[in-house]
Amino acid sequence: MNESKPALSLPPISALMTRRTTWLVVAVTAGAAVAVLLGFAAFRTGDPMHHFTAKVLQGEIRDVVDATGTVSAVITVQVGSQVSGTIAELRADFNSRVKKGDVIAVIAPQLLEGALLQTTADLANARANVLVSEANVQKARATLAQTKAEFERVTQLAEQKIESQQAVDLAKANFDTARASVEGALANVAQAAAQVRQKEAAVSVARTNLDYTVIRSPIDGTVVARNVDVGQTVAASLQAPTIFTIAQDLKKMQVYTKVDESDVGRIKLGQEVMFKVDAFPKERFRGSVTQVRMNPTRIQNVVTYDTIIDFDNPDLKLFPGMTAYVTIPVASVGNVVKLPNAAIRYKPPFSLEKVKELYVKAGIGEGGSEGTVIWKLGAGQSLQPVKVALGITDHTFTEVTKVVMGSLAPGDEVVTSSTQSKAAPPGGQTPGGRR
Fold first, then answer.
1. Taking burial as the number of CB atoms within 10 A of a residue's CB, which of 146, 226, 236, 348 is the most buried?
2. What's the pLDDT score for residue 88?
C-alpha cells in the first residue's frame, strides 16, 4: 500500500520576501560601513594643510601713542589755616565760585584776641621802662656833674696845700663812679628800647595771627573740595591743615599723563592730541602737548615721563580727577599698501630645507635678509614668499614701503596662520585603540 508522503511545506511568499529584504539590508549596511571605514582611513592617512589668509589692503595708517592720564585744573591751590582754632564760619562750599580776597572761612578769634591784648600790654610796659631808663640817665648825669665839680675843687685846694691827697683821691673815685653810672644808665635805655622793639614785633605777630582767623581766597576760581565743617578744630602746629581746594579756571584744563620711555622720543611739543573719558564715551576731546617733563618715574622697572596736555573746557563738561584715555598721533601716511601684522609674524610649518628651497625658487636667497618675508597664497594652495620693506604701523596694519622681491598688490591673499591634520597612528588604528 503506498503511503502518501506529506506535502512539502513552503513558507509564505511574504515571509520569503521579508527574509530576503533583511539579508539585503544587512549586506548593504555592511558595505556602507566598509566604505565609511575606507573613507575615514583615507582621510586619516592624508596630511591636509589649511591656511588662514587676509587680504592686502590699500589705505591710511596712523601710528599713535596710547596713554592714560588724569584731568586736572591748570592751577589748583590748597587753602589752609596758619593758626589753630575752631571753625566758626564757612562762607564757601563745594562748587562755589570765589574771587580773590573773598572771605571763605572764619576761625574763632577769642584766644588770639587775648594774645594780642597781652602783647599790647607788654609793649606798653616796655615803653614805660624806656622812660624810667631815660630818667635814670638824667639822674646819673646830674650826679656826674656834681662829682666832677667836687673833684675839680678838691684838686685846686690840694694844690694850695689846703686839702690832702686822700681827699683828692676820694673825689676822683666819686667822679669815676658817677661817669660809669651815666654809661650804665645809657645802656639801660638801649636795652629798654630793644625790649620795646621786641614787644612791637610780638604785637605784630599777634595781630597777624588774629588776621589769619579770617581765611580769604588767594585766587579767582571754583571750590572743588571742602575738608572741614563748622565746629571742627584745626591744628596748625606741625603743618597747615587744608580747608579748601580751589581750582583757578575750569575752562582751561590739563591732562597729566605718563608716557613710556620707548614712546617719549616720538612726542613733540604742539602735537595734537585726542582723548576720551568714561563720562562721555561717544565724544572725543582735543588738546595739544605743552610739556614733556624730563623727570622720570620708575615703577617696577618701567620708566615713564609726565606729559602735559592743555585743552579747552568751555562748557565745563570735564571735571578734575576724571580718567582720560589719550591718543597721540606721531605719524601718518595715506593711500599706501598695508599688511595685517599677523601676516608679518607668520612662519610656515616647513622644514628649514623646504623654506630655503622656496626662498631660492623665489629669488630671495637664504634667510631672506635685508627685508621682511611674508607668505602669499598662490595657485593650488601653494605658498609663495615675498620680501618687502616695512614702514610705520598702527599695531594692526603695517605699511609696505617697497616690494624687494616678488609681487604683492592690494587684494592679494597673505597667510596669517596654518593648521595641519595629524596622520593616522601605525597599524591603521583609530585614536581609541581599535581598528
1. 226
2. 96
